[in-house]
Amino acid sequence: MSKMRLAIVGAGPAGIYAADLLLKAERDFAVEIDLFEQLPAPYGLVRYGVSPDHPRIKGIITALRDVLDRASSGETGDDSIRYFGNVRYGQDLKLDDLKRHYHAVIFSTGAIRDAALQIPGIDAEGSYGAADFVSWFDGHPDVPRTWPLEARSVGVIGNGNVALDVSRMLIKHAEDLLPTEIPQNVHEGLEANPIEELHLFGRRGPKYVKFTPLELRELGEVRDVDMVIDERDFAHDDAFADETLMKNKQVIVMTRIMDKWRDEQRAREAGEVEPASRQLHLHFWSKPVEVVVEAGRVAGLKVERTAPDGQGGIVDTGEFEIIPIQSLYRAVGYFGSPLDEIPFDDAKGVIPNAQGRVLDLEGQQIAGVYATGWIKRGPVGLIGHTKSDAMETLECLLEDRDALWTPDETDPLAIPALLDERGVPYTTIEGWHRLDAHELGLGEPHGRARIKVVPRDEMTRISRGE
């Protein structure tokens, strides 16, 4: 093989890191990499899954953009990367198309659906998945432009960073988000939000949370919001947590943060501090068991109090409480989506694989087909995990080089011609530059870094210079 032609489906961090690592890998052949993305703009969940008030994380886009720009500009010699946005795998391109034009394909399509929560009433009106809400406030082009923000009392289920992001965006005053890149329609929706209190629920105790200290600290720094603590949640005698978890520096820091909130609450209760206009209630040892429904809408959340079992788990106590709320968000994890003609594990929400080599339903390797990122391992891990994950997949790909597909068509102009023939209004990296400049220009008159363009057709039109 003098040149490997590789297709990567999904242009988020996982896909772009896989491309970058292949460019940097030791090899005796050149590579041509085509990245296909269903959205007009690249970068996946970094653009559409990170809260707009977290610019430090969105700074990852700068590094990803450098990968695409460097490889598409010819700086990498005989190696190259091309970006084709607005192309849907399974619709605009099929598996047979990839086999005809490439030696292999890596699927890096991520996980964008909400994991299910099987409790009665979860499908009532006013009950939402966190992933859908995140897509709305991040300006995803395929979600509605409006969001029903009508509740004064809101519940969020989950003790991970997504639950904190959702809670922060719901409880924060809209004017404090103006320095961020939220789309105009999102700002207008949040500005009309009548919320007065938010209740955050977790099945286990405060030392077991999956938050990161920085995220937790940020939640307590939101202007005009009081953190409300239930002292019962800190009264358990939990030797396992004290002897095991309290050796973790992150747990120690988060415990100090919550202890500070408890002190502030005592000061409010003593009349030493004026209360804020909004409250965020933390409910630990609280397992959701039923959504209370009235007239088809969310009216409350029934929880069962839990207790530590002495081994890091929980036991049910038989003590139930109902917290009145008018809307509910479940942030219990993301879940992958099946892909046309590719095996899928419905229970885990991933493509079955061994170290990135995709397997059929009998556990046999499928030649030429690989996976990386969340669609490979599930929605866990940070950006660092995504890089090591991509490296594992690429090592397998390179080991298999003699058993990959043999493409019939190797002309690099064949794919653009095929997409044109099928009437696919695809976008390119040059088109992303146009869209990027346009969004920056929208924000400049308002003193904002960027205002996102939301509708897909407008994004496509700007990207294509039409």
Report the top-level CATH class of the largest domain: Alpha Beta
Kindly report how far apart the N and C termini lie. 40 Å
What's the Cα radius of gyration?
24 Å
Write the CATH architecture name of the largest domain. Answer: 3-Layer(bba) Sandwich
Count of alpha and pi helical runs: 16
The total count of strands amounts to 18
Unreliable stretches covering 5 or more consecutive residues: none
What structural category do the secondary elements indicate? alpha/beta
Q: Can you tell me the CATH topology of the largest domain? A: FAD/NAD(P)-binding domain
Question: What would you call the shape?
Answer: globular
The averaged pLDDT comes out at 94
Q: What is the CATH superfamily classification of the largest domain? A: FAD/NAD(P)-binding domain
Q: What percent of residues are in strands?
A: 15-25%
> What percentage of residues falls in helices of 4 or more residues?
25-40%
Tally of separate domains: 2
Pfam family, one: Pyr_redox_2
Keywords: FAD, Flavoprotein, NADP, Oxidoreductase
Domain FAD/NAD(P)-binding: 5-175
Family: Belongs to the ferredoxin--NADP reductase type 1 family.
